[in-house]
Write a structure and sequence with these properties.
single chain, alpha/beta, 124 residues, Rossmann fold
Length: 124
């Protein structure tokens, strides 16, 4: 893996969970947080403006459904879906995502591994 810095954006409306994600993401030193958004309308704009490499996306959030954000965005970051709903909920959407993490986050390594998977895909 290169020494390049990768940028990520959090789309999550629970402030306490945003803090948990930040702590876990600090375990991946090459990742830099470029912001977080608590609603999908703002998120769609930020994705195109900030062009993150990786997106941590809650699917149940104010505004649009989380996956609809990606349909509105021209920029398509590597996406990790994080939700309290089972992964099969994602079958209703046509969204490419690298990993699904179920809330509550019981295993920080699961998210760290998903991020490493994203970075390997970016590197190819």
């Amino acid at each position: 893996m290169s020494n390049r810095e990768y940028r990520y954006l959090i789309i999550e409306d629970d402030p306490a969970f945003v803090e948990i994600l930040k702590v876990v993401m600090s375990k991946v030193p090459q990742m830099k947080l470029i912001g977080n958004s608590d609603n999908t309308l703002d998120a769609a704009k930020r994705i195109d403006l900030d062009k993150p490499d990786v997106l941590l996306l809650d699917i149940n959030i104010s505004g649009l459904e989380g996956p609809e954000v990606l349909e509105l965005s021209d920029h398509k970051p590597m996406t990790i879906v994080i939700s309290s709903h089972p992964e099969d909920v994602m079958e209703n959407y046509e969204v490419d995502y690298v990993a699904f993490i179920q809330k509550p986050l019981k295993n920080a390594e699961q998210l760290v591994n998903a991020v490493h998977k994203c970075l390997k895909l970016i590197g190819n």
